[in-house]
Amino acid sequence: MLLTVTTTHRPATDLGYLLVKHPDRVHQFDMPTGTAFVMYPEATDDRCTAALLLDVDPRRLRARADAFELSQYVNDRPYAASSLLASALAKVFRSALRGACKERPELAAEAIPLEIRVPVLRGGAELVTRLFAPLGWTVTATAIPLEPQIGGDSRYVDLRLAGTHRLADALNHLYVLLPVLDDGKHYWVAPDEIEKLLRSGAGWLAGHPEKVLIARRYLAHRKSLATTALELLDADQPVTEEESELPVARKAPLAGQRRDAVIAALAEVGATRVLDLGCGPGALLGALLKESRFTEIVGADVSARVLEQAARRLRLERMPQRQRDRIKLIQTALTYHDARLGGYDAAVLMEVIEHVDLPRLPALEASVFGGARPGAVVVTTPNAEYNVHYPGLTGMRHSDHRFEWTRAEFAAWAHRVAERYDYAVTIRGVGDPDETTGAPTQLALFTRTEVTA
């Protein structure tokens, strides 16, 4: 399957800086379902095109339980754009999706003329237009005809988009809407997928006239997840059952249970000045602000774009000054010592460590437990043993996870860190536990020994 991005912004070859891919080379990436390539079929000062080609290996595809016997090999997955292409886009253009560009930061923040083509896409011209046109794109969706002997049009279109956008915004539009148009995901959709949707949809999804359809399809028609996502998109005007056609979940989503567990742990140690490390788009920050006991809250993340999303989500510009004085957002890398993080009562690493490459994890430990050295640290991470309860899940819960630990592995890590940096640690589960596999999320509460002695 193929996706191309073209710009005529001069010099057009600066597209290589924005994508962090040199135009003179062919770049290759291993993917769970095949191999991704990035190449530049044209690269001049006047016009530059980057092509993302995903070569899908049918042997790596997971066949649906209700599919026919050879469906793993006889399908449209290698050709029609889907969540497979969205996942490749997220891995290959990770920096560009965040709007990060060391060499051309001013260009990354600028809206530039873009042309995007997806030659084979499900969905039909009418739906494609309904999804992309409200975002400021000029949409040309040409139906792909069936074989002449059959006649008529297929369910696929050749999509062309033209508009002036930040490249990061354009890529996030594609990242969300490609699987929406395909109406399927190639991996198990867990509650944490809500955060991914909110992060990629920041600044445009809340006002989209098709946000209900987008949420439902992106979250694989899991009604409780879609309802939660829609309510989070518009906290001031919660989506009603009639509007969304989705029933309210009977159980609190795991993401909400996790936030509640973190806040309870912070209250347990009496923390008032708190760091949210790897804060993302601000889900936990919003919950912390609702608790008056937290007098100083700092959200830290490596991505400037994500911090902008958090600021918009929290409505910092419209926040009363008394509230605004309680919160601060800072950009920093957690694998390096930052003196600004020192002196706090507690730090939170909520669903962060599993996104760090294992060889880099000791650097994060040294930065947080050794450098910042807060009075307490709260860490949450998935329990790999619980994954058997997710039907169809064959790997980790998210493609961006570098690892997922069993309860024994997490406990071994937590006790090793506690011993090395002079902390005491207790471990507990979050979410409805299973008698055999435990709870879906693991939580470790570290308390500095000289504080508790």
Automatic annotation (TrEMBL):
Keywords: Magnesium, Metal-binding, Methyltransferase, RNA-binding, RNA-mediated gene silencing, S-adenosyl-L-methionine, Transferase. Pfam families: Hen1_L (PF12623), Methyltransf_12 (PF08242). Residues 275-372 form the Methyltransferase type domain. The keyword Metal-binding applies. It catalyses: small RNA 3'-end nucleotide + S-adenosyl-L-methionine = small RNA 3'-end 2'-O-methylnucleotide + S-adenosyl-L-homocysteine + H(+). Its EC number is 2.1.1.386. Its cofactor is Mg(2+). Belongs to the methyltransferase superfamily. HEN1 family. This is Small RNA 2'-O-methyltransferase.
